[in-house]
Amino acid sequence: MTRPEESHLDDALARTCVVVPAFNEADVIGDVLARLCTLPCTTVVVDDGSTDGTYDICQPYPIHLLHHATNLGQGAALQTGMAFALTRLGPQYLVTFDGDGQHQLQDIAALIAALSTGAVDVALGTRFGRAADAALVPRGRRAVLKAAVVFTRFCTGMRVTDAHNGLRAFTARAAARIELRHNGMAHASELLTAIRRERLRWCEVPVSVAYTEYSGRKGQRGVGALDIVWDLVAGRMP
Amino acid sequence: MRAGQFVLLVLVAALGLYALVLHTRVFDRIVMLALALAGVVLVAWPGLASDVAQAVGIGRGADLVFYLFIIFCLFRFVSASAETRRLERQLTEVVRELALRDERALESSPPCEPAPGRLAAPAETGAAAPATPRT
To answer: Does the global pTM surpass 0.80?
Structure first.
């Protein structure tokens, strides 16, 4: 019934590990995990020191559940999850997927499909690859994101169309060469710098991001951008 | 010696001694001790700061001391930031190590079906695929 390329993709997904950083996502994490469990991939959740019971809600699901004793930031949670997956699970592909439920399952498949061609090491999700996805981005967010894109291009020299999109996929080999040292949100720019430094082949894949009232409340505020700039500048210091 | 001088001398000397007994790095203790000594000298010879300031073209002695104070504060600020960052890295390492050592994370969990009642899964297309726990 399934076409050959579909079963090929299923095979690839079965060798995929999805890393989900979660900080105080009790309202939505159960829903996110229930959706992820319908995929053949393995899921690793890193509870980044949540204080709202996120850890307990995650427990019944068939996932690997890690717990930070205190809140370190999304970059640190991703690094922990990726280190765990690489050293203990040995997947072929790694995906990062935000815990707030804004990403779509079918986009994981699209990212893995891009990687499984063998042409790239890293597939980055972009909200601005299709007009329909871009239209979903609220106007205020779009302005901030565009500024972030300009800044990111300037910092990394990579002609990306989106910055700070939490949905990405790596081959295990590529992920092993990336180490996130920025605990906060600056890890997104740091990641790109690492991709460039390690001369990894990358591409962007259109993904859609659902902007709900929840993600708007949870997501980065505009002033967060200042923190990111500060993190990057301060990070250059010894 | 005037009373004011005496009070200042005692305070500065006390600070210097306090810095000596604190268990900070030797370098920090030397710096604090040198500063305390400089303070004692400046208090004991009130005209000295002015003479030095005149010699280097800064004006009043109080200005000279004030400028040096600002430079010292900036230096401390930068080194304190670096120190904070170092501590942050160490904290990250500790927390990560704890998280990675938790063997429960490796355990295979129950299959997907019994999602907690409070946040029941929305029926995705067809039956839920069987989970693939790996150990």
So the answer is: no
